[in-house]
């Protein structure tokens, strides 16, 4: 969880929000689960997910442990079902609104799996993945929407984002998150974006 660069001891100097794809306000916890994006990748998609480990349990370190290959598979019966899984996301927003980053946005995180969206497959190649601590069908906290708003605005100012979708939209039938408990209209209002950014069924 070491910052990717030291804090400035000269507060009057401008400190950039981004450095090499790392977002300064997030807690940095680098994951080994990432790769280089393919040449010419156009990072124009944000993918929203929900996650909790074990499902429905909040507040523990298990998600961070999963994304950094440190989860104890014997610690809970559910973990045996996902034993050996190697995944990551660029960002993780806890129920409190606390923000973690695991992979540089310039790199390819392993969050989408088999997926297709806006006429392209392999969404990991050109997307930024954001995990919300939560459960499919459950609602999300006000603090999470506030952090998601600020983060999304920063991402959209740094990368040419043209689409925002859920895991359920890029892998329909295989994934259901973030699920019906996520308020897409609220996100649209907070970001002041047109419906063209959103999945077709949301518009």
Task: Describe this entry's structure for a reader.
By secondary structure, the protein is α/β, with parallel strands linked by helices. The protein has 4 helices and 12 strands. It has helices at residues 62-67, 142-158, 167-170, 184-191, and strands at 18-19, 22-23, 27-28, 34-35, 45-51, 91-93, 99-101, 108-109, 116-117, 120-121, 127-133, 163-166. A 6-stranded mixed beta sheet has the order 3-7-6-11-5-12. The longest helix has 17 residues, at 142-158.
- The helical percent reads 10-25%
**How far is the first residue's CA from the last residue's CA?**
39 Å
The poorly predicted ranges are 6-12
Radius of gyration, taken over Cα atoms and rounded to an integer in Å: 16 Å
Tell me the total number of β-strands.
12
Q: Helix and strand succession?
A: EEEEEHEEEEEEHEHH
CATH superfamily: Peptidoglycan recognition protein-like
Strand order of the largest sheet: 3-7-6-11-5-12
Q: Would you state the CATH class? A: Alpha Beta
User: Which secondary-structure class do the elements indicate?
Assistant: alpha/beta
CATH topology: Lysozyme-like
Q: In DSSP terms, counting alpha (H) and pi (I) runs of 4 or more, how many helices?
A: 4
Strand content: 15-25%
Shape: globular
Major sheet description = 6 strands, mixed
Return the domain count: 1
Mean pLDDT: 94
CATH architecture: 3-Layer(aba) Sandwich
Task: Provide keyphrases for this structure.
17% helix, single chain, alpha/beta, Lysozyme-like, 4 helices, 203 residues, six-stranded mixed sheet
